[in-house]
Amino acid sequence: MDVVYQFEEVARLPLPGDNCAVAIHQLNSGTVIQYEGQILTLDYTVMEGHRFAVKAIAPGQDLLSWHLPFGVAIKQIQPGHYVINETVRGALSVRQLTFAVPAEPNFADQVSPYILDEENFRPAQASPAYEDTRTFMGYRRHEDRGVGTRNYIVLLGTTSHTGSYVNELASRLQSEWKNDSNIDGFVPVAHTEGGTEKPNNVDLLLRTLSGFMVNPNVGAVLVVDYGNESVTNKMVEAYAREHNYPIDEVLHKFVSLTGSFEEELVKGEAIVREWLSTVNTMQRTPESIRHLRIGLQCGGSDAFSGVSANPLLGWVSEQLVRYGGAASLAETDELIGAEPYVLSKVRNVETARKFLELVNRFKERTSWHGTSAEGNPSGGNMYRGLYNIYLKSIGAAMKKDPTTRIDYATEYGELMKDGGYYFMDSPGNDLESIAGQVAAGCNMIFFTTGNGSITNFPYVPTVKVVTTTRRFQLLSNDMDVNAGQYLEGKSMDELGQEVFELALQIASGQRSVGEKAGHAQVQIWRNWQQNDASRLDTLLHTPVPTGAPIEIEDKAVTRNISLQFSFTRHRNRQSSDNIGLIVPTSLCAGQVAGMITRRLNEQGAGYPELSRFVTLAHTEGCGTSGGPAESLFARTMIGYITHPMVKHCLLLEHGCEKTHNDYMRHQMDVMGVDASRLGYASIQLDGGIAKVSEKVEAWFADRLVAADPAEKVTVGLEGLRIGIVSVGAINKNAGEQLGVLTKIIVGAGGLVVIPENSGLLAEDAFSQQLFSTSQVRPSIAYGEHVHRNGFHIMETPTTHGVETITGLAATGVELIIALIGDRPMQAHPFVPMLQVTSDQDVLHNHKQDVDLVLEGNPSIWVNHILERSKEILEHSYVPRLYQKGNIDFQMTRGFLGVSL
After folding, report:
1. Per residue in 279-307, pLDDT tens?
2. What is the mean pLDDT of the chain?
3. Sheet with strand 251-256: strands edge to edge
4. Is 155:187 a contact under the CB 8 Å cutoff?
């Protein structure tokens, strides 16, 4: 006789009366379950967190969790049947499963739209306030700033252009920090925004930067720009003063970088050193917990998020609000479908109306980009049982306790001026949403996770709450709280009180697990390209470049150049360098990849076979739209995986992203790339940061031992793979000579790639060397690996310099020549960039950053460029800005990418 399981042994109902249950561990096909006097037999294997019916559900009838609908049956569903939609079937199809899933879906994603009944609306009463108070040890600031839980010196880049500056400055200042001081550290806030012409998120960006400055966890802040970006220090200061941000109540300085990178770093160090004694005198004092402002987040969610971890945060938030503190619920698109619950208790009709306006505005913005706000759940979410946005939203909304009233609905980053429970507009992208909460004044973040997200913000402590005991045990070194105890019988009151006390300890200075791990990330709500749907049809049907080289004019160029270059060859791969590359498949894996890479380089691992290890931390793979943006991301990442300079490559997934390792394997199969030669590791599935680091290091060690030695080869100009970019005004002679250089290399059989947005293509002196017409279309897509040498133009959907370089390097070029008519460009993590100029103003301010000055007779400039290129490719010369750390990497989202 088959074993009969009691329902409580194998599943949970979110609320009594629901018609679908959640499996608490994987249940094989044929499992027999006793439920309320009936016997259920599972028709398919039900994965942990996935649902099966406990009641008969007729076609057209709602499927219910928490008494709210998350879909409609499209066929009869019997008790014991696995419930599944088409989206999850597709998501599971790229996974390497050992069991069958249903051949057809049995429910569709369909929920009736919510309509606010204003006529019968009744304002809700707040929960009774506690008469007594509790305290924590915090840093008292001016009354308009509140009380800090930390005391950091923040180095804030106004735009992405200064991101590498604040990163390098923070690195240099670390030796100044002492564990026993009252300063918690020096943190860089480098982000992706403000680097394009006329970004659509300017107001949002100014509000966020202003809020970052006055957050109570900031002891002092250095704000830096170049003075000529689309968002500048002057704009930030003007916005802050106009909107009454108390910037005069925080020690700060606005600095514009006008000199060389090294000179400005020295100046920055001097400014911060002058602040040290002042910031160190700031002391913790007993403060009422009404000064706590907590941001509520969920990431890497699973089916238990809404059962254990999110209700736990709801309990803690309700207590804090009753003590006079504030809590912030965010992630607008992750509440679609949960409106009846969210708006069941609201302070007034204006707040309810504002909440719905923000939701509808979010839906409209995503529609301009050819996607839907309902498309939020990632592949990791679906793998762990969140079938669609409705199910994800219902669970996410449990961060509001049923007894809690929504007091305010606010814009992204809008300051929280009073106690209460807030809803803040933001995307579901965790890091982008957290940045808004920090700008709004949150001095702690509570982050629930089912898969085990490792997210941390640099100067606001993040407390991570995991949904199940099994996942907590797997990732015990990276999680703070095991909410799975509730699933095993501990009462919510008891567990909530424990977490509330932990919150007070962390607010008072006890380091969270994430702080001990020593990694953090910042991402502000990224710019969106479209403001309406007028171009949507055109953008969705843009012709794909052919990949064939562009024919250039057969004009004779007489130059006696017989340079040869020493490269290496390994099997069918010929290159100027050999690196070990770690490719994070999403933004949340980037910082861990960076930590592993630094350790490998410090150990000298792989030398001399490998010159170094490199990682490519980026902002994509989580909380972003699919379609063209996702295809662009995959194409670019595969461009790097197949780059000729990469000898050994490993993919590191976070584990819950859209673009996980299995997704990337599938994309490589589609593109005909051999995925078997790569390494794969998972932060979540391999047991956390420490264990995955060991696995990655061991994989590279094994590869290095097994690798055949590379042979030295000598190549001529036909072996060159060059990218050429320009910034600022273009000198006619320089343009002409770069045209000659292009013709010589292409004529010899080499490769030259120029981005579509380069001013060189509009410069007659350059283009007349190559074309008889100015109407030349791109031959390759952004980030596309070039398969045929010759001359190519790469598509560039933005004007952002780092995004351009990121795509250009993925094409397979091994050297980028940058013609500088403004200021030097941020360098690439591993493709060397030769910065050349003939502009005297550039030389006056940035002579120490330039690698080659074009002066004298222009006819010899090509020779000088090739000679310096030879030195770089043969490693006898290292470009200056790479040496000094002025390095950045940023993926574009194309015209249609948008945060979800």
Report:
1. 999 999 999 999 999 999 998 888 888 89
2. 93
3. 185-189, 152-157, 218-225, 251-256
4. yes
